[in-house]
Write a structure and sequence with these properties.
The structure is a single chain. The chain is mainly α. It has a domain of about 50 residues: Winged helix-like DNA-binding domain superfamily/Winged helix DNA-binding domain (Arc Repressor Mutant, subunit A), CATH 1.10.10. The chain contains 15 helices and no strands. The chain starts with a helix and ends with a helix. It is found in: Cytoplasm.
């Protein structure tokens, strides 16, 4: 990858402008299967960097989608996205269009692997091994990790009692330490050797037939966009109409026509008319 392309893909703002970056990434159209295959073929057979750039830019939204699922670790969103972008670039570099899967199915494992590594390095020890007992647990497990598999319930209870920590701490620590092994997701070779030797792990071409990340991201984006348009459209209504729409359609405990009629001292038929007019106005505002 050229330095200019790396800069374009990896420059994620560290301040409040992260929202602008996300908006920009989401504005880039998703490639059709035909266009993606054309670009990937140009990159794979001709080392076309312009094709690589288009592939990367059109998939930045997927990195954001994946990075958001790691927000619970308290790490900067921009850093998570940036690490995911590294994984995306590695995936684009290695993607073989003749295998028969979409790039996003291939790239998701590389993206997650880079984010996993970042999280493990920057969160696990600081966030978990904060007490003396937890640090003792961490280093005891690490020392014996090569001979330990998954703990049985009896082993979990024994370790917890011996080290003076909760069983939850033991299982959480063992799970995080075990997740450091990325062999299923990453090639054992380094970046350049893996590409040259053609040595790839099975997960890199594992396609989930039950799930399409591209579809799920698009559906999520559409729902978010629709909610934003609905909120903007609602504020164009008068206060009474807003209340009628919210209580009749948007709240869990929906009000009846008669309840609203009693509230506003009008007939139920009048509430129905106001509701109909408000919904027509919303429909018109959201179609713009």
């Amino acid at each position: 990858m050229s330095e200019s392309m790396q800069s374009m893909a990896l420059t994620v703002p560290q301040s409040g402008s992260i929202e602008a970056y996300m908006q920009s990434a989401y504005s880039i159209p998703v490639l059709s299967a035909e266009r993606e295959h054309e670009l990937a073929t140009r990159l794979y057979s001709q080392d076309d960097l312009q094709a690589a750039q288009e592939l990367i830019m059109s998939h930045l939204r997927f990195v954001i989608h994946i990075a958001k699922s790691y927000s619970g670790y308290g790490l900067p969103q921009a850093d998570l996205i940036q690490e995911g972008n590294v994984g995306l670039m590695k995936a684009v570099k290695r993607f073989n269009p003749e295998v028969g899967v979409r790039l996003v199915s291939f790239a998701v494992h590389w993206i997650k692997a880079e984010i996993h590594e970042y999280v493990l390095k920057n969160w696990r020890i600081v966030k978990v091994a904060t007490t003396k007992a937890q640090r003792k647990l961490f280093f005891n497990l690490r020392k014996n990790k090569k001979r330990l598999g998954w703990f049985s319930n009896e082993e979990v209870n024994t370790v917890a009692e011996t080290l003076g920590v909760s069983t939850k701490d033991v299982m959480e620590m063992e799970s995080r330490m075990s997740s450091q092994d990325q062999a299923f997701e990453l090639s054992s070779d380094d970046d350049d050797n893996a590409s040259a030797s053609g040595s790839f792990s099975p997960a890199q071409y594992l396609e989930d037939k039950q799930s399409d990340l591209a579809v799920s991201v698009e559906e999520s984006n559409w729902e978010q966009h629709a909610n934003q348009k609905l909120s903007s459209a609602l504020i164009t209504l008068d206060e009474r109409s807003q209340d009628i729409v919210r209580t009749r359609w948007l709240e869990d405990n929906k009000a009846t026509l008669q309840e609203l009629a009693d509230k506003y001292q009008v007939s139920a038929e009048r509430i129905r008319q106001l509701e109909k007019n408000a919904l027509n106005k919303l429909k018109g505002a959201m179609s713009l």
